[in-house]
Amino acid sequence: MPIDKQMILDYVIREYLEEDDDTEITYNTELISGGIVDSFSMVSLKRFLEKKYNIQIPDADATPEAFDTVNSIAALVERFVKA
Amino acid sequence: MAFSTTIRQAYQDELAGLRTAGLFKEERYILGPQGADIEVEFPAGADGRPVINFCANNYLGLSSHPDVVAAARRGLETHGYGLSSVRFICGTQDIHRKLEKRLTEFLGTEDTLLFPSCMDANAGCFEAILGEEDVMIADRLVHASIVDGMRLCKAMRDTYKHSDMGHLRDKLIEHQDKRIRMIITDGVFSMDGDLAKLDEIVALAEEYNAMVFLDDSHASGFIGKTGRGTHEHCGVMGKIDVITTTMGKGLGGASGGCVSGRRELVEMCRQRARPYLFSNTVAPMIVAGTLKVLDLVFASTERRDRLEANTNYWRRGLTEMGLDLKQGESPIVPVMLYNAKLAQDMARDLFAEGIYVVGFFFPVVPQGAARIRTQLSAAHTQAHLDKGLAAFRKVAGKYGILGKGKREITEMYGK
After folding, report:
1. Chain segment B39-66, per-residue pLDDT in tens
2. At B101, phi and psi to the nearest 5?
3. How many folded domains does chain A comprise?
């Protein structure tokens, strides 16, 4: 299954930005190190991906680095979809 | 392994990194008791400077109240200095149980258990009462100690956007398959000073069969008509399942905290909460002092009324001079500056003017949301407030930000 980056980006915007927040987010925007998503709230993104792609991402792989950009998230998901 | 030169260098580099990033914290020495007027030695070795304190959690001005100090001294004489024990071995005195009963009455709950601090109460209670089949749904701006406590608990973790009831509802619907849903919130949010929408939270909890956890550390003693807390203010006394709070802020300011709420949940904490089981009991003199604090709070609302009047006066003064404030009703009044360096520079200049405030910036607050957090006290007099306002006008004028909003300030100084 191809990884839909736009869908991930849409989820990030909907889940993490306030309505009046006009921060522009691209596939390369640093979400965690940039302070947009805190590592604690990352859990809902992980669960969203697991449900959407019917995969299990072990906690050891769900690192702040792996979740830092939409591109790195897509790469992580792809690994588990293939596996 | 010895503390080798390489290891030492690694730590020195890390500390140097904190300094370079402007994140290094330095203590300022207060030469005397806590109060509105204090003398501060800063930097270390400098002569003491008299300043007005606008950054303490001394909301009711009871930290050095003579009646509280006298009660603590009596407690020292009648119950000793320490107990050399955790609570359940030989660390519980009659006054510990008496204070727990008084706090139960004060908070309008079923039972209460003391902890060494509210940090400990928050660190211990989730693990004690929730398990793998449950979910914790927390406001995204809850205090760091709650985040730590949630990390220690095996229940699933989720969050909702700050005070966004629609988002909370979505999360409650999403987690209907869980055994227990627990909504977790602060009463007053420590960095923004706004109040949780507790009435709406309780309504959602009833609709979606969830429990409610409230950390009321920045509210106990002064929020609500008789100072019982955010649950009194929002008309939901008796409907909160777990309340944690501290004796280290409005309620005397020494130390100690508690878990208060449903009898069975408090009992689970007594049986299982690790900071309760493995940490020393609260010192008798602090218990005796806090009992006196509660006597004062039960006897009169005069102090919380004065605090409210001071807060309104301060907020109005800062607004009228054209500063950009976070809106709210609590005695935490953040002056928004958005830029970290501006917040630090202004705090330094205000200190030179005899006003003690602190700048807050990322990662304590979100990126681009730097601010000076001012905190009011019932111990502030009209003269204190007027001197503080005059200093803010002078310093903010120097930086050209009076009458400016977020867009203009960030254009001038960057995010």
Report:
1. 999 988 999 999 999 999 999 999 999 9
2. -70, -40
3. 1
ipTM confidence score? 0.83
Per-residue model confidence as pLDDT tens digits over B290-333: 999 999 999 999 999 999 999 999 999 999 999 999 999 999 99
Q: B26-55+302-413: which CATH number, 3.90.1150.10, 1.10.3720.10, 3.40.50.700, 2.40.50.140?
A: 3.90.1150.10
Q: Which of B151, B159, B362 sits opposite A41 (nearest CB)?
A: B159
Asked about B190 being catalytic, the answer comes back as yes
Q: Which residue among the candidates B218, B231, B233, B380 is catalytic per the annotation?
A: B218
Residue ranges per structural domain of chain B: 26-55+302-413, 66-299
Confidence of residue B1 (pLDDT cuts 50, 70, 90): low
Mapped onto helix, strand or coil, the DSSP state of residue B351 is: helix
Distance from CA of B184 to the nearest CA of A (A): 14
Between CA B142 and CA B384 the distance in angstroms is 31
* Whole-prediction pTM: 0.94
Asked if A56 is an interface residue toward chain B (Cβ–Cβ < 8 A), one would say: no
- The two tokens of residue B173 are 């619907």
Q: Number of residue pairs across A and B with CB atoms under 8 Å?
A: 23
Q: What is the CATH number of domain B66-299?
A: 3.40.640.10
Is it the case that residue A1 has pLDDT exceeding 70? no
Kindly report whether the peptide bond that precedes residue B363 is cis, defined as omega within 30 degrees of 0: yes
